[in-house]
């Protein structure tokens, strides 16, 4: 007979072992949460054959209590997702660019956990629905965890975090009908011309990927690479799928949904079970700080790509292991853009700046303040923070020094080598939109880059939703944005929804 797990802490004493062995239950004996064996899991304790159930039935009470607490809040966005483990291998030594140790030598391998997701639709919703897809990567580096929390599309709808809650409210189901409603989100977007570029991406077939394996990933924002000398470069990250890009048309997505609304999870799990491991190459675009002023748009605006800036390959990620338990790993995974490592810093992008706060904050609500201690989130290096206590603290701190600085031998000290880079500044505080908005040009370039079939799909997808908008001011304003991006683009959607072309042209001229 094998000792059950609870024997371990007492295992040092031979007498203890002998006693435990005498009482130990078989290895597969069901236990309660306190480890005690369960005698009957089918029949509640009752007061005789006809009497009520007894409160003393610890197994009955514990099961019902635990069951009633199984749900935690789903993520406020990106609730539906799939996680997978793998590793990232650096393609070289990039220390000239960044002190980030994971990029320090060719062949250097860093474990990763990736979570792919949809954005707006709730946990359990069909994976076939139109949406950007999340592409969040946690690198467990030897200098702590770096979370690159990106999407499958290169830009975003807005450029300032202060708009994010309103945008998500408009895209989520109506508080009255609990249904998603194009009247609501186009009402919002008619005030956000900078969204034209991202809307063009989302309404193209890229809004319905055929597989998580066949989409790219983007960091979207500018970040900073900082080398050991403190030199700063602005960078954008791009995961290029080695499987190529493959999307579904709206019709194909609908057909798949009828048969299998977990299609993206199935595809990923099946590929990994078949040892057909998906891989992505990580590329970076690099700009010197003085180059930021040389664009017609603001390169720190998350609604823009950086055209004609060459990409350098940093390495390759391969995903090869699905989680043993969905909830414990995928659901409890906490990705936060603020979690960076020395050599990688945030840019001044005001959308990113809001994200630096938002994720770690919401995770203290969704998972609790000690969520970084969970096995899926725990760094693979020692954590020597002086954070104290908090709910569900599973730490093992045993020093009475929980403050810094201290003269005590072994007390932790900060290290000036890891100070943040310095940003030159001048001016006053302000509340103003950015200077170089360039809201429409890149949307037009994207439209013109599409094949005739892709263009037709985009027009049909947009017309399907815009055609439901009852307020003609909202509809026509949206149409004027697409027209401003490209006259053919705007005119074709206008025709499809029965709007007056002269009116759209007039509105577009005024933009
Ligand atoms: C100011 C703008 C944004 C805010 C305030 C915001 C906020 C949030 C919040 C609160 C979550 C849930 C986090 C959790 O419960 O663990 C989340 C998830 C996520 N967001 Fe954002 N978001 C913003 C923009 C973006 C952008 C621009 C991207 C892509 C570049 C993005 C990608 C993601 C991804 C991939 C997840 C899911 C992470 C996971 O798989 O757990 N978000 N976002």
From TrEMBL:
What keywords tag this UniProt record? Heme, Hydrogen peroxide, Iron, Metal-binding, Oxidoreductase, Peroxidase, Signal
Q: Where is each Catalase core domain found?
A: 31-412
GO BP term (any one)? response to hydrogen peroxide
Where are the catalytic residues?
Answer: 78, 151
Which Pfam families does the record associate with it? Catalase, Catalase-rel
Q: Which Gene3D superfamilies match?
A: Catalase core domain
Q: Where is this region: Disordered?
A: 32-51
Against SUPFAM superfamilies, the record matches this protein to: Heme-dependent catalase-like
Residues spanning the signal sequence:
1-26
Q: What class of enzyme is it?
A: oxidoreductase
Keyword 4Fe-4S on this protein? no
Q: Which GO terms describe its molecular function?
A: catalase activity; heme binding; metal ion binding
Which Gene Ontology terms of cellular component type are present? cytoplasm
* Amino acids binding heme: 359
Stored PROSITE patterns: CATALASE_1 (PS00437), CATALASE_2 (PS00438), CATALASE_3 (PS51402)
What Enzyme Commission number(s) appear in the record?
1.11.1.6
* Keyword Heme recorded: yes
Reactions performed catalytically: 2 H2O2 = O2 + 2 H2O
Q: Which cofactor does it need?
A: heme
Cited PANTHER family: CATALASE (PTHR11465), CATALASE-2 (PTHR11465:SF23)
Describe the task this protein carries out.
Decomposes hydrogen peroxide into water and oxygen; serves to protect cells from the toxic effects of hydrogen peroxide.
Question: According to its UniProt record, which protein family does this protein belong to?
Answer: Belongs to the catalase family.
Give the protein's recorded name: Catalase
């Amino acid at each position: 007979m094998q000792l059950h797990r609870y024997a371990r802490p007492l295992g040092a004493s031979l007498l203890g072992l002998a006693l435990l062995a005498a009482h130990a239950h078989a290895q597969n004996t069901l236990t309660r949460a306190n480890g005690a064996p369960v005698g009957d899991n089918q029949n509640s304790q009752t007061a005789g054959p006809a009497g009520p159930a007894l409160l003393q039935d610890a197994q009955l009470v514990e099961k019902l209590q635990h069951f009633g607490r199984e749900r935690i809040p789903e993520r406020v966005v990106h609730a539906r997702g799939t996680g997978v483990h793998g590793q990232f291998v650096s393609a070289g030594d990039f220390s000239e660019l960044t002190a980030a140790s994971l990029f320090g030598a060719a062949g250097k391998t860093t474990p990763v956990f990736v979570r792919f997701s949809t954005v707006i639709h709730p946990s359990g919703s069909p994976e076939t629905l139109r949406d950007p897809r999340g592409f969040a990567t946690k690198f467990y580096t030897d200098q702590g965890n770096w979370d690159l929390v990106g999407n499958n599309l290169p830009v975003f709808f807005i450029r300032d975090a202060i708009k994010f809650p309103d945008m998500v409210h408009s895209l989520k189901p109506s508080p009255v009908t609990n249904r998603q409603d194009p009247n609501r989100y186009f009402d919002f977007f008619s005030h956000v011309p900078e969204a034209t570029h991202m809307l063009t991406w989302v309404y193209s077939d890229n809004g319905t990927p055929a597989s998580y394996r066949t989409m790219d990933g983007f960091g979207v924002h500018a970040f900073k690479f900082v080398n050991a000398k403190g030199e700063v470069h602005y960078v954008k990250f791009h995961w290029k799928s080695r499987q190529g890009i493959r999307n579904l048309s709206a019709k194909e997505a609908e057909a798949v949904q009828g048969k299998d609304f977990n299609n993206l999870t199935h595809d990923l799990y099946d590929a990994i079970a078949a040892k057909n491991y998906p891989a992505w190459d990580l590329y970076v675009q690099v700009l010197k700080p003085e180059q930021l002023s040389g664009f017609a748009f603001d390169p720190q605006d998350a609604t823009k790509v950086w055209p004609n800036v060459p990409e350098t390959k940093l390495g390759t990620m391969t995903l090869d292991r699905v989680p043993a338990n969905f909830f414990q790993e995928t659901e409890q995974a906490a990705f936060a853009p603020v979690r960076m490592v020395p050599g990688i810093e945030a840019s001044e992008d005001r959308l990113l700046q809001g994200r630096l706060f938002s994720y770690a904050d919401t995770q203290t609500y969704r998972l609790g303040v000690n969520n970084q201690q969970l096995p899926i989130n725990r760094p693979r290096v020692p954590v020597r923070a002086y954070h104290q206590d908090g709910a569900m603290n599973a730490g093992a701190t045993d020093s009475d020094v929980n403050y810094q600085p201290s003269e005590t031998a072994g007390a932790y000290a900060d290290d000036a080598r890891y100070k943040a880079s310095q940003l030159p500044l001048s001016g006053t505080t302000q509340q103003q939109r950015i200077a170089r908005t360039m809201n429409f040009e890149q949307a037009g370039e994207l439209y013109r880059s599409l094949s005739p079939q892709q263009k037709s799909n985009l027009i049909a997808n947009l017309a399907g939703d815009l055609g439901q908008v009852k307020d003609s001011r909202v509809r026509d304003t949206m149409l004027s944005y697409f027209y401003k991006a490209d006259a053919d683009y705007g005119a074709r959607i206008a025709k499809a929804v029965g709007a007056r072309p002269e009116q759209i042209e007039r509105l577009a001229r005024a933009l």
